[in-house]
Design brief:
This protein is α+β, with helices and mostly antiparallel strands. The protein is built from four helices and seven strands. It has helices at about 1-10, 30-35, 40-45, 130-159, and strands at about 20-25, 50-55, 65-75, 75-90, 90-95, 105-110, 115-125. A hairpin with a 6-residue loop joins strand 6 (about 105-110) and strand 7.
Length: about 160
């Protein structure tokens, strides 16, 4: 019985944990970077290969309606999804990842802090118990680190 209690404790997430993947970085002219996220060729270069690989771009691979497939990796998670650039405004780009395990990712300008920033957020539902703790402790931090590397890659590409 004690082993069962230990397993339940080890598998549970911390109270109040949010499953959303989110990060931001302060930059000059963040709107320019946000608009770059609508160009899938640029994003393929911005993401490190250990985070996103096997990019397949459709004929239209830039702007509203651009379609692509990508495999995301974070810790032990691998997810191959089709996606579409579903919204583009001067300060926000949204990707819709399709399918049963799909999600939305929004790249936006954040002017709430001291300096303007580019903000990325993916809305996620946490996996069910017993995987939730692993997701919160391993996958979510790895995915957020990947987003930070992609944001730095965008800065590098923009020059």
């Amino acid at each position: 019985m004690i082993w069962l209690l230990c397993f339940v404790w080890a598998s549970a997430a911390e109270p109040g944990d949010l499953a959303d993947i989110e990060t931001k970085i302060a930059v000059e002219r963040p709107a320019e970077l946000v608009l770059l996220t609508a160009d899938i060729g640029v994003m393929e270069q911005a993401f490190p290969e250990h985070c996103a690989l096997k990019w397949e771009k459709a004929v239209q691979s830039s702007g509203l309606g651009a379609r692509f497939k990508v495999t995301y990796k974070a810790a032990l998670m691998r997810r191959r999804l089709s996606a579409t650039v579903s919204q583009v405004t001067p300060d926000m780009v949204e990707w819709e990842h399709h399918g049963r395990k799909g999600f939305f990712t929004r790249w936006s300008v954040d002017e709430t802090g001291v300096a303007p920033a580019i903000h990325v957020k993916t809305w996620m539902n946490p996996p069910p118990w017993p995987l939730k703790r692993y997701y919160m402790k391993r996958i979510k931090p790895a995915w957020e680190a990947c987003y930070m590397e992609a944001l730095n890659g965008l800065i590098r590409i923009r020059g």
